[in-house]
Amino acid sequence: MKSDRTDYMIVMSHLKTALKRQKMNYRDLAKGLGLSESGVKKIFLARDGSFQRINEICAYLGLTLSDVLSGTTETVRPIHYSNKQQTFLLETPKAFALYWKLVYERDSVEKSIASLHLSEKSGFSLLRQLDQHRLIKLLPGGRVQLPPIQLIRWAGTGPLVEKIYREWSQELVRTVASPQPPPNAYFLIRYFKIKPKTYADFLAALEDLEREFIRRGTKDMRSEAEDLVHFRWLTAVDNRSFIK
């Protein structure tokens, strides 16, 4: 299906912006789509083209066509892991740790393997298993293609997600829950009674705050700056009393 020439050029302009935001170039996109770099350049420089190809580019960048048509190329994406993927990561802790280092902390393959005290052979074996479960893409020469750095939020449930939410939240609270939290940590616990409207406004404000710092954090990671620090954040709110 061919697109209208004007619409096509507008869409490709938005996709160029998305590429820049994700710190990607034509060569990166070409590898992801299995095309030549010159072929990708032709797609972006053309004055008309196929919506099928646009959909392929959108899928690789983690966007929908409706996002691009509306000019919204930086939205929070829900990330779902299948039960099969979750079971594998749950039953293979080293694979999960390596996956986390690569995809979420964006460490290099070499640094990730070294930090987990893995041999080159065992590290490559785990990379191959992650590839088989479609969590990463293993390329010739031991290179790894990772999902682009983008705004994400975990969605859905499953054994791994439930374990992480339960255990990681408890560990974080144990670390920082104190009237005088450790240096570079922040902990706050409060109680008061408010109107339902105020409670709804408070939840909305927390969501706005999260979106703002997801965007800023994603931008920082794309910058590849050397002075990035780890950042853990737990928010817990309900409308009940502490005293039963």
Characteristics of this structure?
244 residues; Arc Repressor Mutant, subunit A; 3 domains; two-stranded parallel ribbon; two-stranded antiparallel ribbon; 11 helices; 56% helix
In a few lines, what is going on in this structure?
The protein is mostly helical and 244 residues long. The chain is built from eleven helices and four strands. The chain folds into three domains: 5-75, Orthogonal Bundle (434 Repressor (Amino-terminal Domain)); 83-145, Arc Repressor Mutant, subunit A (Orthogonal Bundle), CATH 1.10.10; 152-223, no CATH class.
Task: Describe the model.
- The protein has 244 residues and is mostly helical.
- The chain folds into three domains: 5-75, 434 Repressor (Amino-terminal Domain) (Orthogonal Bundle); 83-145, Arc Repressor Mutant, subunit A, CATH 1.10.10; 152-223, no CATH class.
- It is 56% helix and 4% strand.
- The chain is built from eleven helices and four strands.
- Strands 1-4 form a two-stranded parallel ribbon. A two-stranded antiparallel sheet has the order 2-3.
- Strand 2 and strand 3 (144-145) form a beta hairpin.
- Helix 2 crosses helix 3, helix 6 (83-91) packs across helix 7 (93-104) and helix 7 packs across helix 9.
- The radius of gyration is 21 Å and the shape is globular.
- The relative contact order is 0.09.
The level of helicity is 55-70%
Radius of gyration: 21 Å
Q: Specify the overall morphology.
A: globular
Extract low-pLDDT stretches. Answer: none
Q: How many β-strand stretches?
A: 4
What can be said about the biggest beta sheet? 2 strands, parallel
Mean pLDDT: 87
Please state the oligomeric state of the protein chains shown: single chain
Which percent band covers the strand fraction? under 5%
Secondary-structure content class: mainly alpha
Question: Helix and strand succession?
Answer: HHHHHEHHHHEEEHH
The separation of the N and C termini measures 63 Å
Number of helices: 11
Quickly count the domains: 3
Major β-sheet strand ordering: 1-4
